[in-house]
């Protein structure tokens, strides 16, 4: 058993379109590698900071990422044996040791991406943007527009007392 702490750079597309760990940002790893009969069992945690935009007001957002994972990396001969005995259903999820190297990127991606917020917000009570003009509602809480339902807009002109309407009524 070996315990390792490493800082690595984030790969490209390490998140979603809304929030992600930027490429090249440091990712802190705490790993425990244990030799087992089938291969190497890797248990660990990942710590990073994801950045993105608030889905309500589009202000920048940063979110701490703390995720745990555990995955078995099989020796090549053990993986071949498992395929021979009929464990083909697990082949897509199988991780192998290739040339004495363990590729943690897919495992880290599977741990980090689900831990990211689906709809990140800058704060829980963020009011967002005005749907009419795009103004930040947090900066002006009293902001509003007089919006008339388009179905009633034609009636608005009938109730207005314009000089031409008043003169027609007198004649």
SSE layout and pairing:
Blueprint (H helix, E strand, L loop, with lengths): L1 E8 L4 E2 L3 E3 L4 E10 L3 E15 L6 E15 L1 H9 L10 E2 L8 H8 L40 H7 L3 H8 L1
Parallel strand pairs: 6-7
Antiparallel strand pairs: 1-4, 2-3, 3-5, 4-5, 5-6
Give an overview of the whole structure.
This protein has 171 residues and is an alpha+beta fold. The chain has a domain at 2-115. It has helices at 76-84, 105-112, 153-159, 163-170; strands at residues 2-9, 14-15, 19-21, 26-35, 39-53, 60-74, 95-96. Strands 1, 2, 3, 4, 5, 6 and 7 form a seven-stranded mixed β-sheet that branches. Strand 4 and strand 5 (39-53) form a beta hairpin. The longest helix is centred in the middle third of the chain and has 9 residues, at 76-84. The protein is elongated and about 85 Å long. The chain starts with a strand and ends with a helix. The model has no long low-confidence stretch (mean pLDDT 84).
